[in-house]
Amino acid sequence: MMSGSRWYNNPLRLACHPVTVTIAFISDLHLTPDRPVSTRLFEDFIADAGHFLNQLYILGDLFEYWIGDDGAELLGHESVEAAIRKTVENGTEVFFLHGNRDFLVGKFFAERTGCVLLPDPVVIEPDQTRILLTHGDALCTDDVEHQEARREMLSSKWKMAFLRKTLDQRYQTAGTLRQQSEKSKQSKSMEIMDVNQQAVEALMQDHDADIMIHGHTHNPAAHEFTLDGKLKRRFVLGDWYTQKSAIFYNDGKLVLRR
Fold it and tell me: How far apart are CA 137 and CA 140, in angstroms?
């Protein structure tokens, strides 16, 4: 297994200097005790990140599922929280944007880890470049079933009812929802589960963005297109099942690594 330092080969660390903002973006790690290798890869990565990153943005689905901030111990994620906290204490700012699997991550997780919770979508402006960040599932508008489920589970009513349950009940419910989601995917085409280009363009126009970065689809790539006569770019992060996908911003350049 490749450690974080060998994998990234430190090209950005060599380029980094006091006035340079070095940023990394990751998404869709889907951490769970069922896949301990992914957890070790993340912990190696974030430990190394503290040596060369100013900021780290986690764009959702860090966890396979999240049953509430009081469920970290039951889910076996205490070491992940500790790893994030150590990186923050070492000087790297860590930002967390919710995914469709871990939308229940809340203020107590943020307090324990020291990360900053962000709304979805959000725009950041390193070097005056407007970069739009989103998890990405809201852009999959052709997947009507997913959008309906998304609206229901993001409602205050659903969240309150879920969090009133015991930890064991929440754990069982999350497992059931996960199984249903995987079964549903088997009957859908990749095109339906991908982002809709019109939705992408509309969101970028709404936020006057030059670049969009998102995850969710697990298809790492860099896309270019013209919108309102201007060149726009969309970067997609991959999952961490069989790859270790990240995007780095340094000295005005974005680099996608797999």
Answer: 5
